[in-house]
Amino acid sequence: MQWETVIGLEVHLQLATQSKIFSGSATTFGAEPNTQASAVDLAMPGMLPVLNAQAVHHAIKFGIGIGAQISKHSVFDRKNYFYPDLPKGYQISQFETPIIGKGSFEILMEDGSSRTIGITRAHLEEDAGKSLHEDFINYTGIDLNRAGTPLLEIVSEPDIRSAAEAVAYLKALHSLVTYLGISDGNMAEGSMRCDVNISLRPSGSTLLGTRTEIKNVNSFRFVEKAIHHEFQRQAEILEEGGTITQETRLYDADLDETRSMRSKEVANDYRYFPEPDLLPVVVDDAYIESIRKSLPELPDGKRTRFMTQYGLGPYDANVLSGSKPLADYFEAVAEQCGDAKIASNWVQVELLGQLNRVGSSIEECPVSAIALGSLIRRILDNTISGKMAKQVFESMWAGEGDADEIIEAHGLLQVSDTGAIEAIVDDVLSANAAQVQQYLNADEAKRKKLVGFFVGQVMKLSKGQANPQVVNELLAKKLTHNEAE
Amino acid sequence: MHTKSVAQLAKGLRERQFSSAEVTRTYLDRINALDGQYNSFITVDESAALAAAEAADERLANGTAYALTGIPIAHKDIFCTDGVRTSCGSRMLDNFVPPYDATVVERFKSAGAVLLGKTNMDEFAMGSSNESSFYGPARNPWNTDLVPGGSSGGSAAAVAGLLAPAATGTDTGGSIRQPAAFCGITGLKPTYGRVSRLGIVAFASSLDQAGPMAHSAEDCALLLNAMAGHDPLDSTSATVATQDYCATLSDSLDGLRIGLPKEYFGEGLDATTGECINTALKELEEQGAKLVEMSLPHSSLTVPTYYVIAPAEASTNLARFDGVRYGYRCENPADLHDLYSRTRQEGFGEEVKRRILVGTYALSAGYYDAYYKKAQQVRRLIKQDFMHCFEQVDIIAGPTTPGPAFALGAKSNDPVAMYLEDVYTLAVNLAGLPGLSLPAGFVEGKPVGLQLIGQHFGEALLLNVAHRFQQATDWHLRTPGSATEGTL
């Protein structure tokens, strides 16, 4: 049977705030355990939460970014359960009235097609601490540095139909939140964590099958693999006439499998009720408008602009608008060199290729956009060939200076002087009289091959500096001349 | 010395008639000599108290004294005190020494008050008799066979027994007013949000409120001046401006409209208590007040509503006591579940466990709508009753409790009878209003409390009415024999 995958994603996004959502403790990643935990974070008796206004601001920014309804009156609730890294015995979250209601955004697939994914809601909540099971024999360590870190839980509609779409959705979401500056989006540090809800149904059906939830899948690649794996698992069960158990599963990246964590029959009753220690969050139109006005250009808008302003295709525009630093870099290169299409090629092929090889990000790139733009300009004004430019680029990457300095130092200046090149062409033709003779007797195909040989010889003698176009023109002229004789 | 009011002590200290060290020493000696019979204190730190008194004397000498500089006070053991054990009357926190002060404690420190010690209370403020304390019951100075009321029973007993000139309490359903009534003192529960809850071990967050307990309304006003005010670290604390609560104490009562809810004078009210209340109301009438009969139609729903909301909030507020970070932890837990269940089983007393169970049930899936949500709806109706009344009257008056203090053990095995003790006080918390209890007579040697209920942030008027009453009566000046006999 043909199965259709139905996927909904819940993303826990860590908001970039100076301090925690309900206390003044810092949120810096990687500090010594429990050095960023105050009396509030430890749930000491009598301590009370105070809402961080910046977290609300960030959440509203997100809501505007996806065109969602912003609740002018939202409420925090207590989600009650016992766990050692949950100091109060409840998590402060939003249950009945989230701050952000329905919204949507568009994802673009590699084949150029696009889909709209609905967002059900997004709500503010606090993160729990961490239980450290290693390092302690017979004990569990508790690190509460993360407890109280502000999270925005973003819940999608079950609109996603494949692992590729799930990844595209996550990438688009990542791009959006980093554009908005509401999260650093650092997945390795847990700034964006994903729960995958997945069910199967026969193709063409509109009913929803029983779903499983895969918890805490923390990279684009793992999301893809976990979905593939879970699809296989569910499909096998259904093919054999079995039924899917609604349960929470864990993706094990090492074994590339999902396994059951707990089934819903023993699920917690979280006993949600409105948090009496906090007032409802009330925002007015003026506040929402002031945030709307402060928003930067978002990925969608930028992509469209790249297509109209620079004449880029949708795929190139999508890649280059994928992150704000990359988009800014590309625009600076394009401005410096004056040719957006070549700039697009260079940034995507040479620059991103090199960054991928060494595993660093655009922010860490040793070649500035101005420097790369200047290099491309030297191709456009025929100072160097494209091939040489790649060599210059490598030297720039190694920190040898700007393009002109490197061209000078390595003597890479392209020779376009017809006189100088003519002398070399003459030398080559007289040194290879046999080949010239062959040329004169040969057919078109063979001639083309021989021209290639002559060009190679000229380039070799000129140490690559001869302008290939000039070389070709001169060779054509000389050989035609020989033929006429 | 020990019969002086806070106002008199403050005057004497300013005029250098005596030193804070002398006053403090007097009270410490009285605690040592007499608290064996009252059990009103859980913790007394003599050396810290004397050191604070000496520092206060320096301020008094060099002219940098504040309103309460040198005045000894006691805090209910629910207020966190930096470096001083804060037990909340529970085995769970028997070993808990907070590294911070509650905002109330901090404000009293800033006002110059000297901390005598921490007073006994029902465990986690859950009780109306002080019998649920891990440290044994406090006793009523008017008759030590009687309960002092609760949950702020230790504070009421300490003030009534002249072991402290004033004390703080908290009131979630009557926990300041009922013990004040039982012990013949004056106690004020301010409007919800008037006093910061930060650093007060939470019982029911939407109901808890701290307030002063002293002999007179004037003393309560002095204390409230120190306690009241917005606290940015308590999101539910009010930004409404405070006032000088002493400034209007003597205002005339001419034309004051006092509402008498018929539900507070009906079945269930002890007859002699009712007579005391009526006599007290006549005194106010003589001073120019008009008595207006009225109704609070949803009064009968008060007890069940309260006993859904308060336990529900308590059940989650008390989840943090899990043996992981502080407080009691059971010995040799086998695993996490064992750690949780034995820590809480051994660390909490019966009444606390009963309320956690009730509250957990009320919030559970499938019951939430029928209990918690419904109770919140009824709560709004109860509040509306008051709002309607306040369209016609300035304050509401009635008995604080259905009858005077009862004997120790009389109701300890009957939770519902115990809950009914608070039938006249609970609604005030549900509506977030200020309420005050003041001495209004005696039934067979047992004090009777008159309750005054005000509009939101109407503390000044309640104190004004109580003060005028106390200018014309001497119930609040009576002292129990157990506190005045003997050499001290």
Short description:
With about 475 residues, chain A is α+β, with helices and mostly antiparallel strands. Chain A is built from 15 helices and 15 strands. In chain A, a hairpin with a 4-residue loop joins strand 12 (about 245-250) and strand 13 (about 255-265).
Please tell me about this protein's structure:
The complex is a heterodimer of chains A (about 475) and B (about 500). Helix content of chain A is about 40%, strand content about 20%. Chain A is α+β, with helices and mostly antiparallel strands. Chain A has three domains: about 5-290, no CATH class; about 310-410, no CATH class; about 420-485, Arc Repressor Mutant, subunit A (Orthogonal Bundle). Chain A has an eight-stranded mixed sheet. Chain A has a three-stranded antiparallel sheet with strand order 4-3-14, with no helix packed on it. Chain A has a two-stranded antiparallel sheet with strand order 2-15. In chain A, α2 runs antiparallel to α3 and α5 (about 300-310) crosses α6 (about 315-320). The relative contact order of chain A is 0.09. With about 500 residues, chain B is an alpha/beta fold. Helix content of chain B is about 40%, strand content about 10%. In chain B, α5 packs parallel to α6 (about 175-185) and α7 runs antiparallel to α15. The longest helix of chain B has 21 residues, at about 370-390.
Notable traits:
heterodimer, A: 485 residues, alpha+beta, Arc Repressor Mutant, subunit A, 3 domains, 8-stranded mixed beta sheet, 3-stranded antiparallel beta sheet, 15 helices, 42% helix, elongated, B: 488 residues, alpha/beta, Amidase signature (AS) enzymes, 3-stranded mixed beta sheet, 16 helices, 12% strand, globular
Mind sketching the topology for me?
The complex is a heterodimer of chains A (485) and B (488).
Chain A: E1 3-14, H1 53-65, E2 73-74, E3 77-80, E4 90-93, E5 103-108, E6 114-126, E7 130-132, E8 141-143, E9 150-156, H2 163-180, E10 192-202, E11 212-217, H3 220-239, E12 247-252, E13 257-263, E14 273-274, E15 281-282, H4 285-294, H5 299-310, H6 314-320, H7 324-337, H8 340-358, H9 369-380, H10 386-397, H11 403-409, H12 418-431, H13 433-441, H14 444-461, H15 468-484
Parallel strand pairs in A: 11-12
Antiparallel strand pairs in A: 1-9, 1-10, 2-15, 3-4, 3-14, 5-6, 6-9, 7-8, 10-11, 12-13
Helix pairs in contact in A: 2-3, 5-6, 7-8, 7-9, 9-10, 12-14, 12-15, 13-14, 14-15
Chain B: H1 6-14, H2 20-38, E1 41-44, H3 46-62, E2 72-76, H4 103-110, E3 114-119, H5 153-160, E4 166-170, H6 177-183, E5 186-189, E6 210-214, H7 217-227, E7 257-261, H8 271-286, E8 290-294, H9 302-317, H10 336-347, H11 350-363, H12 369-389, E9 395-399, H13 415-420, H14 426-431, E10 435-443, E11 446-453, H15 459-472, H16 481-484
Parallel strand pairs in B: 2-3, 7-8, 7-9
Antiparallel strand pairs in B: 1-3, 4-6, 5-6, 5-10, 9-11, 10-11
Helix pairs in contact in B: 2-3, 5-6, 7-15, 9-11, 9-12
